[in-house]
Amino acid sequence: QVQLVESGGDLVQPGGSLRLSCVHSETGIYTYNMAWYRQAPGKQREFVAGLFTGGPTNYTDSVKGRFTISRDNVKNTLYLQMSNLSPEDTAVYYCRAYRAGWDYWGRGTQVTVSS
Fold this sequence. Notes:
The chain is mainly beta and about 120 residues long. The protein contains no helices and eleven strands. The strands form two sheets. Strands 2, 4, 5, 6, 9, 10 and 11 form a seven-stranded mixed sheet that branches. It has a four-stranded antiparallel sheet with strand order 1-3-8-7, with no helix packed on it. It is globular and about 40 Å long.
């Protein structure tokens, strides 16, 4: 069973930066489509960024130009570099790994943007 473990969430001031990490428990992270989602209090979970097998990336409009998704195939780790954070980015951030017949989620890491 694949396990995904997120880390890097923290309390940060508006305008600040954070880097989230998601460690995939098996080798071959590049064989999965990987993505970050987030869920703010009282809201539905939403897609944030995706990194697909073959390399294409995709971002929700609200984070374009501020967030960058990347992957280290040697460390089996997915990253989300976040900059120019705003209070609207406050949420629990979840990592997802999926491919045909398989869909795994991490337990999330809390990001709070507040002064």
